Amino acid sequence: MDLSEKFVKGNGTFVDDIHMPGMLYLGFVRSPYPRAKIKKISGGITHKDVNFDIAAVGEGSEEEQTFSSTAHPVLAKDFVGYVGQPVAAVYSTDPYEAEDLIDSVEVDYEPLPGISDPEKAIDFEPINPASKSNVIVDRYFGKEFPDNVGDVVIEGRFVNNRIATNPIEPRGIVTAYDGDKLTIWIGTQSIYSIKSGICEAMHLPAEKVRVIQTDTGGAFGLKGGLFPEYVVAAWLAMKEKRPVKWIETRREHLMASRPGRGAIAKLKLYADRSGKIKGLKGEVLVDNGAFTGGSGEFSPAFIAMQLAGAYHLENAYVRARSVLTNKAPQGPYRGAGRPEAMFFIEKMMDHLADKLKMDPVDLRLKNAAEERYRSPLGFEVEPSKKFLEAAIKETGYRELSKKYNTGFSFLILYHATSGGESARIQVKDGRLKVWIGGNAHGQRHDVFSKTLINEELGVDESLVDFQLGDTDQIPAGIGAWGSRSAMVAGSAVLMAARMLREKVEKKYGKYSLNHLLGEEWDAYHNFEYSKMESSLGVNVVTADVDDLGKVKIRDCISYYDAGRVLDPANAAGQIAGGSVQGISQALYEELAFDEDGQPLTSSISDAGVATADLLPKFTIKYYKSESTLPSKAKGIGEAPTIGVPIALSRALEKAMGREFNETPIRPELLLRETAVQ
Amino acid sequence: MVENRHISITVNGERKEADVEPRMLLVHFLREIAGSTGTHVGCDTTNCGACTVLLDGRAVKSCTILAVQADRRKITTIEGLSKEPGKMHPVQKSFVDNHGLQCGYCTSGMIISAYWLLKHKKNVSEQEIREAISGNLCRCTGYDNIIMSIKDAEKRMEEEGDTLEEEQAVTVRK
Prior knowledge:
The complex is a heterodimer. Chain A is α+β, with helices and mostly antiparallel strands.
């Protein structure tokens, strides 16, 4: 059955839909304090039973550093570092009773002052007894340069506050153990991250763990890695030899999953009077949360290295730090460092244009990279001028900006292509089964896989059964994140299809569909790729603000270099969906905390997920190109969450006549003085 | 401990009886007892609408209604929307044809809300659709294709003679 048909009939199998006889339901006792010593725990499963830590796996985890002293314990030991941190676990055959049992565990805490502001946390007493300082990453990129490189300098402090990933399906897991092998069913972006994370945390050999992906109800970065609750579910299944289920509540999600963003930059941009930028200097600070194992270890570097944007930048010197705070660990959220970096550089470009009384787009044209070069901050910048010229024309920016409050953002999207991806195609009984390494969670990788197989092998799409991930069926792979799948998973599928073609040719002298479908074949291809690719994009947003501070978005235009668009319908869906997340970040979304780290956001609506009545229609256009990968595609999944907040925030600056350097733009800032009186 | 209550709820035309705790939520009755796992739990607080079902013909969020409140009433879930088993209702079909879904998790509730709208209003405008589904959150699609699906569904329902229903007064038993 077609995947869409399955879902509209209510026949999906999400992880909470799995029922097994004798199933145990897990519940977690969580810290009510941002920071406290634990003096005593009475009852429940505790760290004495499950004495493991969480290692970083998933997106970005290839970074070389290790942070064992600040690692996240599966269950808290002698202190807690954030509200919602798992302290103990309880279970029952009845999920309601499991919820009741949470109250039966007594924990004796000694509350300590916590710290939620990352800038203040730098000099605050160490919140982790194993650390001498809350600063856990402190690196420099580029090279110091004299302040007199430019005639003008723009200075600013820019903030992307933390936001929850909030897929509509929360986290969840089902585990079972037959005395020899542990099987895990999970909604995930990467069965391999889950498997390697469990094996590493629990010291289990790879052959003793199987991970099967269930239908996955959105993820946006959340479901790429391992979480403490998963380890407890695995441990309990092995101990009791019974299936175990844990499903996150939304409140747990808002407290204790890994939210994204949470980055601050203080930067100076130097330029000459003609608008040619001469240098960038300053610092980036990431709000890591209380423990490592999320993305706070590597996101400062990832943000800093992208700060040249799509421009030619001669001089740069940036300090990038990550600091412990009394909040849940930071994690990747759609873009994961990319939206932050582009927000920082693009805001400065807009303000530099204002200072020089130039059109921001002319300033961008003046600084777009004409040739490929390596920025002093580390990343390669592709030639961007030709694209920018096309984008200005195709989006109609010049006309729009004459009539409306118009924001323009220019982005470079670095795809997480490094590491490649795998695919397997099995032919049996006249049908094809296809697995790919990265696990889709709403992007419909099945569609582009079928298209590519059809083109390569001539197999009708109705004969192809796309499979969810299963480590016993496809042994190695990476994951679906970082706008990578159409590029590397698409290429892996195509290469596996070519392998099948070659197998048939080798046996019969030439390829024929009858020979392929008439026999049993199997091809596994690990598409190796070590380079990080990039692509360019532009967003244009026009908006107005009414007397009550309500934002009305007129246009939200995306113009992206998507390479070969393998699946136009789902590419458009990705861009529209990402644009909503971009609008939502700019206007509504925030996980708020008090000074100590007590969360102030308690529902999905408080967290700011946008509703349909607040949104515009989206215009989507593509720059024609092809990537050099076999699939010819370029990733676009994260482009809108990078470009839209910038362009919208600029449109509102025009509407309100003031700077907005922070997301979300708080509603009180959108009230004109006349309206307040 | 409060005693269990014996309740009987007609789910998609079939009577489902059970002894349940008075605190059991309707969504859990539907998922665990009636086996209608197409009804999803997203937010627990009536914000996201993934759990939307029809209670005596009216769209309600089943995560904040107790199962005992639905005793002796009729529920329609996503699995029972189509009158012919195995076939899709025009709203379901138009969501498939217009890419009105991506991950599929909010879809059941979204379709139920759309169905309810189209059963109660003719010639719906885009803004009316946006407002009607503002109690259903989707994090994937950006809503554009959902709105297109609902507009298309209206046409298909008209073609199939699927007519408007009178608004029924629904009171939830206290």
